[in-house]
Amino acid sequence: MDRPAIVLLSGGLDSTTVLAIAKDQGFTPYALSFRYGQRHSIELEAAQRVAEAQGVARHVIADIDLRVFGGSALTADIDVPKHESLADVEDAGVPITYVPARNTIFLSFALAFAETVGASDIFTGVTAVDYSGYPDCRPEYMEAFATMANLATKAGVEGTSKITLHSPLIALSKADIVREGLRLGVDYSLTSSCYDPDEQGRACGKCDTCLLRLKGFAEAGVKDPVRYQSA
Description:
Elements: E1 4-8, H1 13-24, E2 28-35, H2 42-54, E3 58-63, H3 102-117, E4 121-123, H4 139-152, H5 154-158, E5 164-166, H6 174-183, H7 208-220
Parallel strand pairs: 1-2, 1-4, 2-3, 4-5
């Protein structure tokens, strides 16, 4: 039987791995990405490459403009913080790269997409280990959203289906995520995780997400295949 599932796909390491996991579990993935006013289009280009390579049933790019609110280095004229090591950012609180309520907004769109294609499953690549400390990446948040989802949908109210929110990476380190992706045959050269790549698409190597990604590949004992500006 066809088992449709919505997979939030940013084009980065985590969401690309989750897409492979959903396929491995027998789901037919419908990928959902966002043009939300982020400072570059590199990640969307990566998402399109990944969606094509993994053969999703459909790839939707939704247009919303979070620049109208600002408040983040990803959606406003605020410099992306750069660091020499992860030790520089430990215990620094929620970073300025946090986009207010972004996961709630994205998951709400995923919920609408799920209802239209008859999907009862939504996959997201949030992780609470080796992450930047965003409040909407915690297990208790994911549990609360799943509860809300089943109160807010026609299928949930009528009892015809129950929305299940999958976050298979939430307790994994970046190294474990890399290992799982490689086991599933993920081509990480297609991905992009950097918050501030150059015009050639090369990663900066110094933002939070670059440092976390590099840490994961180093601990997994493999070389990160994407291009970095310092290379």
